[in-house]
Amino acid sequence: MPDSQTWIPVSSTDLRAEINPLGAQLSILRDHDGQDLLWNGDPSVWSGRAPVLFPIVGELAGGKYRVAGEIFHLSRHGFARGKVFETVATTSSTALLRLRADESTLPIYPFPFELDVRFALDGPTLSVTMYVRNIGAEPLTASVGYHPAFRWPLPFGQDRAAHCIEFATDEPQPIRRLDAIGLLASQAQPTPVAGRRLALDDSLFVNDAVIFDQLRSRSVTYGAGTGPRIRVDFPDSPYLGVWTKPGAQFICIEPWHGIADPAGFNGEFAAKPGVFTVAPGGVSPMETRITLLR
User: Fold this and answer.
1) What distance in Å separates the CA atoms of residue 116 and residue 85, rounded to the nearest whole number?
2) What whole-number distance in Å separates Cα of residue 194 and Cα of residue 273?
3) What per-residue confidence (pLDDT) applies to 210?
4) Positive or negative: CA dihedral 234, 254, 132, 279
5) First vs last C-alpha separation in the chain
6) Which of 143, 178, 182, 194 has the most CB atoms lying inside 10 A of its own CB?
7) Contacts of 185 (CB under 8 A, 6+ apart)
8) In terms of Cα–Cα distance, which of 92, 87, 128, 80 is closest to 237?
């Protein structure tokens, strides 16, 4: 679908943002000086900016999954990023967008749902909260994730090599990688985090994302050794992906409540790692906070 939607502006004293109803995608994030903090979605490199991932995160084995023995098909990261969301409410600093199950989603995801995405700016912080609501009569199973791409380097005068991601606490556990078809490889690898810091280098991403599936931290700070930095808080997300295309001018810091199928997985969707269940009438939130630190 062409990107022809009117973007929704929101602002605070420190930040300005614009949200595209196509995918409820944060598409511009600037500081008070007008400097871009978010990737511009150059389609010759990668057209994403900050996609919403729903109802799966990552790749399914064979592109399919099972619910009560019935087979359904979904492409990587699900369908929400390609759907136009309804704009429910806006103020100068907030926007609430909604996607509902319809005749296009039920054949590929057999659950009546509402997916709300709420953006709220307060000073130097942008909060993005996704609410998965079960409007059906049976339990709903899903995964959800956020995929913001920040400028690498940030626009504060330091080069790419000076940038790192610092975790809130030690992360000694092994990381995971994807195999050649995008599934979670069975063999874990030693963590590249040293002294709570992940030094950013293109060589890390030759084989796709760095995946933390035994995560202790619920926040990271990204930037160079000097100058403003960005803190990303993800209190509701047990997984974190870090990704770029080698040589690209962005780094994705991705809180996930879900993960790609492990290689060899063929169980029910509800048994897939990271999948959560929402009772009829219930709602499950996932918040990400992006704060500019000066």
Assistant:
1) 9
2) 27
3) 98
4) negative
5) 38
6) 143
7) 176, 177, 178, 179, 263
8) 128
What's the burial of 194, exposed, middle or buried (CB within 10 Å: 0-12/13-18/19+)?
exposed
Helices first, then strands: H and E counts in the chain: 0, 22
Place of tokens 């490199």: 45
Q: How far apart are CA 129 and CA 192, in angstroms?
A: 29
pTM, rounded to two decimals: 0.97
For residue 44, what are its two tokens?
A: 């010759």
Q: Which domains does the chain have, with CATH numbers?
A: 9-293 (2.70.98.10)
Cβ neighbors of 63 (< 8 A, separation 6 or more) are 73, 74, 75
Alpha-carbon distance 123 to 47, whole Å?
28
> What secondary structure letter does DSSP report for 40?
-
Q: What is the mean pLDDT of the chain?
A: 97
The owner of tokens 């084995």 is 61
Alpha-carbon distances of 76 from 42, 52, 100, rounded to whole Å: 20, 12, 20
Tell me how long the chain is.
294
Tokens of 121: 């700016």
Q: What is the pLDDT of residues 206-244, one digit of tens each?
A: 999 999 999 999 999 999 988 999 999 999 999 999 999
Name the residue with tokens 């084989």: 207
Name the percent of the chain in helix, strand, coil, to the closest 5.
Answer: 5, 45, 50
Q: Give residue 91's identity as a one-letter amino acid code.
A: T
DSSP, collapsed to helix, strand or coil, labels residue 94 as strand
**pLDDT of residue 2 exceeding 70:** no
